[in-house]
Amino acid sequence: MNSAQTSLCSATKLDESTEKIAKAISAAATRLDFQIDYPKILLIATDVKENLKHIELNQKLDAIKNGSLAKYGRVYKLSAHEIFHWIREHKKEINPKQSY
């Protein structure tokens, strides 16, 4: 994380889970060689945390990592939509009988 990102984290006072999700998204962007602004990463991380409260943090982090490694298919862009898809696919893999 560069100094601007650290300042932004400090200014927004992220909780630990949002910060971990943001770091996972940032790592995914690096793996995929996508450019994504840190404010967008924070927005996506917050959306993931707030809208998927029923899913454990470690499952979200695993899904983001696996998705960025193309486990759930080819990746053409990094967006909230794509990350939510990865998390749903990861949950299906863990528990195929449950609907998401």
Determine Rg (CA atoms, Å).
Answer: 13 Å
Taken from the alpha-carbon principal axes, the silhouette is: globular
Measured by DSSP, the beta-strand proportion falls in under 5%
Query: Separation of termini?
Result: 33 Å
Number of helical runs?
A: 5
Number of domains: 1
Q: What proportion of the residues is helical, as a percent range?
A: 55-70%
The secondary-structure class comes to: mainly alpha
Overall pLDDT metric: 88
Helix-strand sequence? HHHHH
Low-confidence stretches: none
Main pleated-sheet profile: none
**Total strands:** 0
Please summarize what this structure is.
The chain is mostly helical. 68% of the residues lie in helices and 0% in strands.
Folded structure, characterized:
This protein is an all-alpha fold and 100 residues long. The protein has helices at residues 3-12, 16-32, 38-51, 57-68, 80-94. Helix 2 (16-32) packs parallel to helix 4 and helix 4 (57-68) packs across helix 5. The longest helix has 17 residues, at 16-32.
Keywords for this entry:
100 residues, mainly alpha
Layout: helices, strands, pairs:
Elements lengths: L2 H10 L3 H17 L5 H14 L5 H12 L11 H15 L6
Helix pairs in contact: 2-3, 2-4, 4-5
